[in-house]
Amino acid sequence: MSAGRHGVAWLAAYAVFTFLSFPHPVAGRVIDLGVFVAWLGPACLWFGLRGVSPVRAARRAFLASLVAHTAILHWIWIVTVVYGHAHPVFGVLGPIGLGAYIAAFTAAFGALAAVFARSGWGSPLLLAATWAALDYLRSFALSGFPWATLGYAQHLNPALLGLAPWTGVYGLSFATALAGFVAARAAADRREAGRFSRQALVGVAVLVAALVFGAAAYRWTPPDPAESVRVAVVQGNVDQGVKWNRDWYERTLRIYEGLTRSAAAGGAEIVVWPETAVPGVIGDDPRQMARIGRLARETGTLLVVGAVGLESGGDGGRRVYDSAFPVGPDGVVLDRYDKSHLVPFGEYVPFGELLDSVFRAVARGIAETGVTPGAGPRPLDLPVPGSDSERLTAGVLICYELLFPDLVRRFVRDGAEMFFAITNDAWYGRTGAPYQFLAITALRSAETRVWTARAANTGVSAIIDARGRVRARTRIFERDWLQADIPLRPAPVGGSFYTRHGDVFAWVCWVAVAGVGLLAWRGRRRT
Fold first, then answer.
1. Strand residue runs (E) in 412-479
2. Catalytic: which of 243, 399, 447, 509?
3. What is the DSSP-derived secondary structure letter of residue 291?
4. Is 79 in contact with 362 (CB distance < 8 Å)?
């Protein structure tokens, strides 16, 4: 099929299938088609870029990706304008700007794919490696924004979830893209030569091997240990529009106190509150701290409370943190974890002196100047309620940190046995973002083989097992709580291959791309 005549149609199809690869609410139901359609996006992009120059391929890929990802990120309007009270211009520029950031990586893919095709190296296998390598680069370049990474579209696919403990989410991106490129190449071969090329057959063989390995890895799991702890997550459903209103302060605390008592009556030993569930500063008001301590003593539970942390600086100023406070059954604050990877333009303004007069942090309820990042991922050593000597080590993941696989795996590498994921997804409204974020969280459990208890202010709160399966979940914008018995030791001990060794697979993809790129460049110089 000629890209000259039909390229626009193929690129439009790529944008549609990319949008449909991630969950979205429609008429009160969540439509999640990623398992079925995610591979069609790369296939359509391949046809749309076929036969054009690297510059033209980059331009086409950028525009198609910009449309797709701006549509996916439409919820940024809710964040910036509805709740952030920014000018509507920023509500429009936000999704376009972040869509352009993602589209830049798609443009790089398009240019590389065209270079490889001209050099005779454009096999489905190499194109899939290029896709995965660029997905990895997007996780940290310019602070990183790995939302809508292709691999997340497969969060309900058991065969591909089995790859996550070995390759991270990038292996799922690789396999999904490979399926699309194999299908496109096979269709082109059949039409033009009447038979499949060696490159298509090699791609099929690798894809089948990945699916068989992933399915076997997913099915195999060591038995859970006999010891467990009952963990509850509470969902207060406090609207973002009133969350920081002083008139709601007392009402908010009463909501979470009531949910905690209900969970404790149901046998919960640990109760996890969402991000900034307390609309104030822990430690700044002794009466507030005493109140939370009394609740912990009354219920006999370990509370993990999301709130604002505060420290006095040497210059007389105050540093504000987005924090989690574990409060023991004796009512004593045991530790504090501070969120380390902050949201650009949400919790801090990059290049503040240059841009602060233009941009303002959305999270004005937390700080007037911006939030201070914590020291980095650090698991917390906590007592097991009801035991005089037993301890557990937990990683508390605060909102945006969940987007970064390498950051999350370091909690488990350093001993975390389970995750308490706390977030405030009220910012997103009734869009696809809460469900997309849940899929991201599920991949973190699948990668590390660690259970996650996810507490979200307005949902989706969930219990996720070590395979990345959502065992229980709430509806969004409902007051609720749920609980589960979570094993006290991870399986396998020490975490997965990905936990121990990191992004080896992504680096292998980069080595392959760089090696072939060098060969292609040398070949062009000789000619």
1. 418-423, 451-456, 462-464, 470-473
2. 399
3. H
4. yes
In whole angstroms, give the CA distance from residue 314 to residue 335. 22
Among 296, 305, 309, CA closest to 325: 305
Cβ neighbours for 469, distance < 8 A, ≥ 6 positions apart = 442
Please tell me which residue in 44, 243, 269, 275 is annotated as part of the active site: 275
Catalytic residue from among 339, 401, 447, 509: 339
What is the per-residue pLDDT across 300-343, written as a single tens digit (0 to 9) for each? 999 999 999 988 766 667 889 999 999 999 999 999 999 999 98
Active-site residue flag, 353: no
Helices (H), 311-404: 352-355
Q: Which residue has the tokens 């509500």?
A: 91
- pTM to 2 decimals? 0.94
Can you point out the beta strands (E) in 344-448? 380-383, 391-398, 418-423
- The C-alpha atoms of residue 339 and residue 395 are separated, in whole angstroms, by 11
Contact (CB, 8 A) for 176 and 155 = no
399 tagged catalytic: yes
Closest-CA residue to 108 (of 120, 98, 100, 118) = 100
Residues 6 or more apart whose Cβ sits within 8 Å of residue 485: 228, 229, 230, 231
Asked about 509 being catalytic, the answer comes back as no
